[in-house]
Amino acid sequence: MSTVRPRLAGMHADMAGGPPRRAGFVGRWLLSAAVWLAPTALALAEASVDAALERVEQVDGEGRWFSYSIALAGAAAAIGSGGWALLDAPLADRGGPDPWVVGGAALLVGAGLGQIVHGGMRFDERGNSARTIRRLLDGGDDAARRAFLVHRAAEARDTRWWGGVITTAQGVGMSALGARLWMEGEGGVAITGAVFTGLGALTVGVGALHFFGRPRAERELDAAITVAPAVLPGPDLEPLPGLTAGGRF
Description:
Layout: H1 4-88, H2 99-139, H3 142-184, H4 188-212, H5 216-223, E1 226-233, E2 239-246
Antiparallel strand pairs: 1-2
Helix pairs in contact: 1-2, 1-3, 1-5, 2-3, 3-4, 3-5
């Protein structure tokens, strides 16, 4: 028994000293690997941001005329329909203008004017974005490029939200006007009301899509790779230095 106890004690001491030595070796290896991989990971992140900015530049620079033309077409439809209802005053033979017709027509004209102003501001916003991105890609540092991508995503999200508000208001005005003409009018006025109601419901649906979708800049930001220092757990849950890389695809 006296011979076995020292051996057991020695084995216990070796086992007790094993994991810390292994953990120290693994920790040094992970630290060396993190230091060696850091430039590569950072280079991938920078290239990812640059590629995202190039795509946003292309969309903002080449797509702004198309998006503004859609806004102008919607504004023309809203102002034309609302102006007709205000000037022609259907259902006004009851002793005065119909309040539902006046309210719906006024909302339509206001939304149409809002589409022109909002679309023009968005047109300039996208042009300024494309020019700023080109300057950053030609001579800006990495921090400035990533900061502008974050800014552009937030800016596009807010612009999209207000576009949804204006488009939804236009659809509500068109639907209200159309439903009133459809239910109370006769002949051609009733047919016009039915058409207005259908167009209004469609416009409300288009406006609602603005609140659920994400603009291109925000999607590019989510897909860009980000690299940051982190503390990772080792084999025995001891803290070890490392890097984290993330993206949304």
